[in-house]
Amino acid sequence: MHVTARRFTLRAAASFIGALAALLLLEGILRLLPVHESLHKLPVNDENPMMRFRPNRQFTFSTGWNFSLVNEVRVNDHGFISDFPYDRDATSPLLAVIGDSYVEAAMVRFSDTCAGSLARALAPAGRVYAFGVNASALSQYVAYAEYVRETFRPDGLVIVVTDNDFDESLLNDNSLPGYHYFVETDGQLVLRRKDFAPNLPRELARKSALARYIALNVRGATGGGRLTPMPDGRKLLLAGTPVATDPERMSGSKRVVDTFLRMLPGMAGLEPERIAFVVDGLRSHLYHDETLAIAEGTYFDIMRRYFMGKARGAGYEVLDMQPEFVRHYEAHGQRFDWPHDYHWNALAHSLCSAAVARSRLLSLAFGDTGAARERNTPARGA
Fold this sequence. Notes:
Shape: globular
Number of strands: 11
Strand order of the largest sheet: 4-3-5-10-11
Number of domains: 2
């Protein structure tokens, strides 16, 4: 028995050492590869009330187990993804672009993003600053609007609205820390911040290439679409937002829209005519007439129509990307995202910048000269 126990102990020790050696070897190999690095979100609290990233750093963004998409990303002095610093004392006209991961756009070269291409085209007459953090929603956009007003005093504001911006604005048990949410108080929705403090396991995991590869490259890739069963047996191609239109979800989402549109001018310090919304289209569906027809009446289809109608009625400018995408795809047959990532690619961003360039807002914020210069910059594939 003693000999058997000793053999078992030796074998267990050998197995442990072998497994540890294999993990260390994998860690060493992955450190030589473009593994996705963490964005390093700052703590959110009374000292730093707005979700931002650790400033003045460069990191590698990649997606997929085989690193099918790789980009080098720069975080500027104010903690937002941008190739240049933000000058809070500058006096030239400023257009602020607010959004979630579509404005953060870590998967696209900054110069090719909607905000980046506008900034390049409109300099030096004016500035375009991007304020985008993944997982933000309408409630967070209101908070960013106030932050931008107090810090930079913009002359115009563009907000990119996507499929998960509505019901994710309501605080619930699954809401991520670090963001602002709407909560029910005395029969109305009010804005509340949910603080965030990075924990030790998270910080340690950031330092391991193997942990980041598993969490961000293998498990974190967002697919370009998947088939979702419909109640009548049809298959709907969708990326991430559920299609369900139950009364409670729809009622809450519409209340979010109404509250957001009512609060925004005061928080932004701008009249509605100086605020424009870029509204994403049903991109998973627009490549085929059949899938586009199936998408009618789904959650995002209803909410985008409700949002655009209410926004226009309140005097905001609405730039609907759906017809822009459809026209371009019919003419050129080019997709607006990747098979392995549902976010906008550089083509979609160029169509966004072209739409903003034609907007009434840009003429108000920059005057006819700056707007005309960007209008003459064609979208890719055009």
